Amino acid sequence: MVRSKAVLSSIFLGLSATLATGAAFAQPVLPAAQTAAQGLSYADLVDLSAASGLVIRATIRRMTEVPRQRAPDLAPGLGRFYIEADTQALLAGKTAIGESVNYLVDLPLDARGRAPKLKKAQVLLFALPVPGRPADIQLLSSAAQLPWSELREQQVRQILADLAAPDAPAEVTGVRELLYVPGDLAGQGETQVFLTTKSGTAASITVHHEPGAAPVWGVSFSELVAELGHPPQRDTLGWYRLACFLPNVLPPALNVSESYASVRQADADYRMVLGELGVCTRTLPSMP
């Protein structure tokens, strides 16, 4: 059924009012961010997956540009579009959705001010349900509509499974304290880095030294001792919890080692861990 302009106008107003106080357009996405979305990092996908109430694969059936006077907050070079899409799969979400979903999204226009041609394109949507409007969803941001590919869906499904696992690594929020304790032999000792987590559960990093050998380290997200020599691999949830949330610099008061030499060793071990974790690369704006 073809909708009249009057009906679509009413929908724009209703959905825009619903989302006005939400996160969908709290941080307008510039064209560069849309370009970056083509090559998302692992951290980007975890950020989106963790913040979403719904993760949906859909096919765009219809897109209608919202009159610019009804989108005064639009950044230059962008257009706001009302999207009607057919649901292909619900990858995650506790809220029931129908055979189609509707949402607003800001997209870059070309040099002539024309809209992108996305009809029949398959997309992955990271969204929240709209209370009282079961057919509508609210994107986390305009960067939360991603081009679909089989590989990207597999990555997202794995991330969602890891996030939902009973033994999923806790969300790290910082460092509580660290200390180095020397051993009985010269060059022997151990640094413990005790972490703070959102849930309040235990988490710690252990760096172990033996004479004549390179230090080895590991992490534990429980009361158990860390498994030394097996730090989390890059682009896993355990790696993300550390690399993306450990501070680069610690206040001196957190280092409770007893001697000056021990303080320096604990600091050096912490820097070594950060170096081996590597940089947490993000290409998308932070989630609102």
Detailed description of the structure:
25% of the residues lie in helices and 28% in strands. Strands 1, 2, 3, 4, 5 and 6 form a 6-stranded antiparallel β-sheet that branches. Strands 7-8-9-10 form a 4-stranded antiparallel β-sheet, covered by helices on one side. With 288 residues, it is of the alpha+beta class. A hairpin with a 6-residue loop joins strand 7 (172-182) and strand 8 (189-197). Helix 3 (42-51) packs across helix 4. It is elongated. The two termini are 36 Å apart.
In short:
With 288 residues, the protein is of the alpha+beta class. It has helices at 5-19, 31-36, 42-51, 150-164, 237-243, 260-277; strands at 54-65, 78-93, 100-108, 122-129, 137-139, 145-147, 172-182, 189-197, 204-209, 216-220.
Which descriptors would you attach to this protein?
288 residues; alpha+beta; six-stranded antiparallel sheet
Largest sheet: 6 strands, antiparallel
What structural class is derived from the secondary structure elements?
A: alpha+beta
Total helical elements: 6
Beta-strand share of residues: 25-35%
Q: Kindly, what is the distance between the CA atoms of the first and last residues, rounded to a whole number of angstroms? A: 36 Å
N-to-C SSE string, H for helix and E for strand: HHHEEEEEEHEEEEHH
Q: How large, in whole angstroms, is the Cα Rg? A: 24 Å
Q: What fraction, in percent, of the residue positions are helical? A: 10-25%
- Give unreliable regions as ranges: 6-10, 17-37
From the spread of the alpha carbons, the general shape counts as elongated
Average of pLDDT = 88
Number of distinct beta strands: 10
